[in-house]
């Protein structure tokens, strides 16, 4: 276990290209973009399917189908079709995060206590009020757990961006491997794992904050 | 596409065979290892949370980092398939240990008490009562582990051993989409077949879940 690369101050400069902070920044950038785009696409679809019950088959199987798509293959296919750049990476990572977000949004809406929804309707709430004031808040814990597992996956997988010449923490792995510098590879692995844990902690805190106290 | 297939079918078949082997051996070993670990998490409740957290951290290590780093720890050659097998076994254990613990915890306490009252000792009760009742949850975890292993193997292509992933890297280097598409299709199909096989196995070994659904 050689930690010299990780603890060398020269690799932590904020301004040098390819320094660890810069790589963390680009890594987080890919992760956040993929999560935002994935949520914009998957959340409404999952909520709609969960709310109406139409298309459940799609929602249930999206999870497994998505997991079976090899991200590296999709990424390389996109690069050969679209050329190098951020777009192919974002497409591959977004495809990765859509299934867990969609499936958990659906599951959150489906596992609600129906008596509560009935009670809300009985109180005279309009369908939009039932959705936004009752169903959504109650589905949040399940939805958040899907979002968190999507985030964990994409943090680990965003390393493949380096395989097609982009930045992100995968650079430490790919470049370290190319020059047999295992200390650099180890630094990359540790920073990614720490980043994943920190991100999950932040999301756990966010979950405590946005989930209604009545549901804890 | 047909010329590519007819000219390269031997390479493709070799890659597919390697892919199956690299993905499924870890599933078997990981399952066997995860059973006792998951049981410990239930037998000693204070172990459950440390177990879940350790599994979470292990799972967030990028596969690429693990593939590259294991040779250093194990003393294997970088091109040895053993690295992939060990790495995927670690992921499988991380995923399944938690599922096994959750599955065993989900067993109705009344069922366990009835078995105890009928004179079952701890080990017999575990094997004859608790494990079978927990099987649907455990097998659901096994499906996830199998499908994600099949898609993860291809990342190994970045270090030279990756089954169908080698079709991705070859296509990427030549900027040629056909091997990539063939690799993706075969990988997804393989995952689908294995997933269906586990579903079939589950129907076979837990017939009571069908009767329950029929009765409800």
Automatic annotation (TrEMBL), chain A:
Q: Which keywords has UniProt assigned to this entry? A: Membrane, Transmembrane, Transmembrane helix, Transport
Cellular component GO terms, alphabetically?
Answer: plasma membrane
Q: Which Pfam families match?
A: BPD_transp_1 (PF00528)
Domain ABC transmembrane type-1 intervals: 24-203
Please list the GO biological process terms of this entry.
Answer: glycine betaine transport; transmembrane transport
Residues that span the membrane, as ranges: 28-50, 71-102, 150-174, 186-210
Q: Which InterPro entries match?
A: ABC_transp_perm/SBD, MetI-like, MetI-like_sf
**Subcellular location(s) of the protein:** Cell membrane; Membrane
* Source taxon at top rank: Bacteria
Chief location category:
membrane
Alphabetized PROSITE patterns for the sequence: ABC_TM1
User: Gene3D superfamilies, alphabetically?
Assistant: MetI-like
Classify the protein's membrane topology as the record does.
Multi-pass membrane protein
The family classification in the record reads:
Belongs to the binding-protein-dependent transport system permease family.
Name-wise, this protein is Glycine/betaine ABC transporter permease
Could you read off the lineage of the organism from its UniProt record? Bacteria, Bacillati, Actinomycetota, Actinomycetes, Micromonosporales
From TrEMBL, chain B:
InterPro entries named among the record's database cross-references: ABC_transp_perm/SBD, MetI-like, MetI-like_sf
Keyword terms: Membrane, Transmembrane, Transmembrane helix, Transport
Query: Per the database entry, which stretches of residues form a coiled coil?
Result: none
DNA-binding is among the record's keywords: no
SUPFAM superfamilies for this protein: MetI-like (SSF161098)
Q: Which GO terms describe its biological process?
A: glycine betaine transport; transmembrane transport
Transmembrane segments annotated in the record for this chain: 20-39, 51-72, 78-97, 150-168, 180-201
Q: What is this protein called?
A: Glycine/betaine ABC transporter permease
Organism equals: Paractinoplanes toevensis
């Amino acid at each position: 276990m050689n930690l010299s690369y990780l603890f060398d101050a020269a690799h932590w400069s904020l301004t040098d290209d390819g320094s660890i902070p810069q790589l963390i920044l680009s890594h987080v950038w890919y992760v956040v973009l993929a999560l935002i785009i994935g949520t914009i696409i998957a959340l409404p679809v999952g909520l709609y399917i969960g709310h109406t019950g139409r298309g459940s088959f799609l929602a249930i199987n999206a999870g497994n189908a998505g997991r079976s798509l090899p991200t590296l293959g999709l990424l390389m296919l996109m690069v050969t079709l679209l050329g190098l750049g951020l777009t192919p990476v974002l497409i591959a990572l977004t495809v990765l995060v859509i299934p867990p977000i969609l499936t958990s949004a659906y599951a959150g809406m489906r596992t609600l206590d129906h008596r509560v929804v009935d009670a809300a309707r009985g109180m005279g709430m309009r369908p939009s009020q039932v959705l936004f004031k009752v169903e959504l808040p109650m589905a949040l814990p399940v939805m958040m757990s899907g979002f968190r597992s999507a985030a964990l996956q994409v943090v680990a997988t965003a390393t493949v961006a380096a395989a097609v010449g982009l930045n992100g923490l995968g650079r430490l792995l790919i470049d370290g491997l190319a020059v047999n510098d295992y200390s650099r590879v180890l630094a990359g692995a540790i920073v990614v794992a720490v980043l994943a844990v920190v991100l999950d902690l932040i999301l756990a805190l966010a979950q405590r904050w946005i989930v209604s106290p009545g549901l804890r | 596409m047909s010329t590519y297939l007819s000219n390269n079918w031997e390479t493709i078949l070799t890659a597919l065979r390697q892919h199956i082997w690299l993905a499924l051996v870890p599933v078997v070993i990981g399952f066997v290892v995860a059973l006792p670990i998951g049981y410990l998490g239930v037998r000693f409740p204070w172990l459950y949370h440390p177990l879940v957290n350790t599994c979470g951290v292990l799972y967030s290590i990028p596969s690429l980092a693990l593939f590259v780093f294991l040779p250093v720890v194990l003393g294997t050659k970088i091109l040895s398939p053993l690295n992939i097998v060990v790495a995927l076994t670690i992921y499988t254990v991380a995923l399944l240990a938690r599922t096994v613990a959750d599955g065993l915890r989900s067993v109705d306490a009344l069922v366990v008490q009835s078995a105890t009252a009928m004179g079952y000792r701890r080990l017999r009760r575990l094997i004859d009562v608790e494990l079978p009742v927990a099987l649907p949850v455990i097998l659901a975890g096994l499906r996830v582990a199998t499908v994600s292993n099949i898609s993860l193997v291809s990342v190994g292509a970045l270090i030279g051993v990756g089954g169908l992933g080698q079709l991705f890297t070859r296509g990427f280097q030549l900027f040629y989409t056909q091997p990539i598409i063939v690799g993706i299709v075969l990988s997804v199909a393989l995952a689908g077949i294995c997933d269906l096989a586990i579903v079939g196995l589950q129907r076979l070994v837990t017939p009571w879940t069908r009767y329950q659904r029929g009765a409800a």
